[in-house]
Amino acid sequence: MIPICHKYFRIAVTVIFVFLSIKVNAQDDSLFRFFKKIEYSISSFAVDNLGELYIINTDNQLKKYNEKGDSVGLFNQVTKYGKLTYVQAQNPWKTILFYKNYSTIVLLDKYLNVLTSLNLRKQNIFQVQAVTTSYDNNIWLYDEQDNKLKKIDDDGNILFETVDFRLLFDSVPTPRKIIDSDGFVYLYDPEKGLYIFDYYGSFKNKLSFLHWKNIAVIDKKIYGFDENYLYRYIPPYPDVKKYPLSSALQNANSIEVNNQFIYVLKNQRLEIYSLH
Domain total for the chain? Predict the structure, then answer.
């Protein structure tokens, strides 16, 4: 009798294990759920913290859509200042159009009316690849010539700057993205990692997240993508969780996570997936 009991016990354990494995896989498969598709001819896009979409179409128009999909703004002068590098929409009330090759920032209000344009060269700032709005409605940028993170106002006046990064690091980063979130400023260099500062310019941490296509900070959680995975890191835990991307999310022209949604640009079409 005892060997038979052991046999049935092993069978029961095996069945439970298979069931749990299937359940886990099903949960992983349902992590990304298709929400909707936007059928415009899209060159690039951005998303603000309210879930509003900023779309550059193939006619070089900037269109803004609210979370319901209604058009709420149009800007026709995208190419007036040269070739647009990107739209930065972290602050819904102050959208940044950044023209890297012309060292120019154009600020738009929530209806895409021009607030001001700023030529950084006139402020003796010549090498910038990343800008964003700050918590106090000013602008963060990284000056590669001075190797400093700087905060400027809408007129280009320097309000704050860190020490020279060459005094802090053996190898100076070249940030491609800056994020202001929950009391910290994040500078991301895909070749060196994520550098974290407080609002007073004090260096807090460096995380070796390399070669991510995009990066976001939402409620102190850090998200990023590569070709095959979505990564999520929750400080201060040591592990980074990764979730396989389905074929629909792979090989995207651009991919971004915001407001519990994933936005995927492929073949000039934008698909949106809910993130569970």
Answer: 1
